Amino acid sequence: MEANLTAATLLGTARNMLVKQPLTRFIFREDQDIYYLKHNQLLATCEAQECNLRLVKPDGSFFWVHMTEIFTQADDGVPVFRMVFSDITERMRTEDELRIAAVAFSTQNGMVITDTKGIIMRVNLAFTRLTGYMPAEAIGKTMSLLHSGRHSLLFYQRMWQKLNDDGHWQGEIWNRRKCGQIYAEMLSITAVVSPERGVTHYVGNFSDITENKEVEAEIHRLAYYDVLTSLPNRRLLQDRIGQAVTATVRSGLFGALFFIDIDHFKTLNDTRGHDTGDQLLIEVAQRLSAMVRDGDTVSRQGGDEFVVLMENLGASTHEAIALAGRLGEKLRNAFEQPFTLKGNEYQCKISIGVSLFNSGDTVEDLFKHADLALYQAKNAGRNLVRFFDPAMQAELEQRSALEIELRKALQRQQLRLYYQLQVNSNGCPIGVEALLRWQHAQHGLVPPDDFIPLAEETGLIFPIGLWVLETACAQLAVWGDDVRTCELQIAVNVSARQFRQADFVAQVQQVLAVSGANPARLKLELTESMMLKDVANTIETMTAIKRLGVSFAMDDFGTGYSSLAYLAQLPLDQFKIDRSFVCNLPGNQNDETIAHTIIGMGRGLSMDVIAEGVETEAQRHFLEKHGCYAYQGYLISRPLPIDELEILLLNPAGHH
Ligand code: C2E
Ligand code: MG
Ligand code: MG
Hints:
Structural class: alpha/beta
Strand content: 15-25%
Number of strands: 24
Low-confidence stretches: none
Helix content: 40-55%
Radius of gyration: 38 Å
Oligomer: single chain
CATH class of the largest domain: Alpha Beta
Number of helices: 25
Mean pLDDT: 88
CATH topology of the largest domain: TIM Barrel
Distance between the termini: 98 Å
Bound molecules: ligand C2E, magnesium ion
């Protein structure tokens, strides 16, 4: 046998080694019959023969070829057979896959193929049989065509989350047929991933499990729900807590367990009978259920004990304590209204024990903690909310005391506006930043970081923010009449909730008009993170305020994750380099680069750049060398009350 180089390469054997070897040695055993059949036909007819068969390499692997064999006679009369073959392995594989896919697609299970947005591209016969929708009615629609309305948004969000993370989701889902009937299906969705383009399609495969479901549902109801109140029982609650604890691992958000006990329930039961007691339990169940959000669980543990499970209470302990404390109070307050039991009013109070949880906790621990907290609430005189952790309890009490005092701070005129000087590279004042202080009767001067978050949470930021704006504008009006100060700008910090008020633009306009301040001297400082929350709305509000002549600075720049694309859209006038970068200048490579980049970005977007927290001459020098010509910080001056600031302003020799 002789072979050309291509053939030798395909066969994985050197050309000289092929000589004298029969071709059949290279034909896959199962395909040898085909070959002999064709070969005999060739001998009989002398006509060229074609077939597909597999050839084997010396290493045992095989590949598909399309082979043509022809018959010629050499000069000496010896018959010669010529084979021409080409590798068709890839084509055979594709054909196999298509065939398999076609069979798989026509199974008894419903199948849907969607694009990455969930828009249906193909359905099979079983899909139509199970859902009632013809292909033409389904194709082009999203899967929400089948939504039953029985699942929360969270359910679908978790499904997509899992699909994105693992490429697969499987579970039971309630869907709606075309005729309106709701049915249960076991659905499995798989992402089709292309190595180059990532996810290209989703394939859904489902079967109708309604019948099993109905039987199952009844069993489930008996096993997991309290017969008297229809609330989830202890078993189901434990499941849900387990899930909730797992969910905190992903979300990083705290959850809380509220143990609730009806004060003096035993007395009611003993004096008015079990019927009345049962009726109260039913009403309590309804009242508690009405108080919680979708997705929270209210359950009855037996007797007069109820447990509420709440999730997503914030990422920090502080936040979670504050929120859980407030929600606990809300539950307790829901019992101010008396119940009507068999025509008689009955005033009933509850005690609540709270235990916060996140990823590290076990269900048993949580039950113990919340139970202990409940015991303490009862011991402390009932009708109370108590946290498991004494430190948490103390923090909660401190916070609520602070909240009460902060409410009064405005009326008692305990708020002060301090001003911190901002200068240019010649050391000349160009403006000030207004910084809020709370002059507290016992605690002295409270810094804003200690009460602004609380003011934000409680909504007190609305009157407080307005007061700051009014005070700053009144100051601008006073300065406007003096040539030595009329050019100075005042920068006012605006918090997220304040900025998002529907009438914020109108407020600014009104304060400017009433005070007579020059709008060009007012600058509002917004933080990076709040601007990115809802870019479209932010731009709208900012643009409206800019039309009044007011300018904007981005505070704490560098601490968020703004992309250049966003920054370019925002109608900003100034970046403030955050103190955390300035403090490591010069010397820290990373922070030097960040400062440098911010200055460059500012220049690129034709914006002013100011550095805050400048404490040393070396920092100021570095900034100046790299093109930042405005500074604020202890090097120049601390934040000062207005009279001290004015001494500094009007005696230029006194400062830097
Ligand atoms: P901010 O707007 O980034 O203000 C700069 C903070 O850095 C101020 O802290 C200021 O006292 C401090 N600081 C200035 N120079 C230096 C320095 O050289 N070294 C150091 N270590 N610190 C310096 P303050 O006054 O405690 O204010 C903290 C934050 O509270 C402010 O950060 C601002 O976000 C907020 N805030 C202050 N006043 C108001 C207000 O009226 N409304 C709102 N919503 N927030 C305010
Ligand atoms: Mg600021
Ligand atoms: Mg700042």
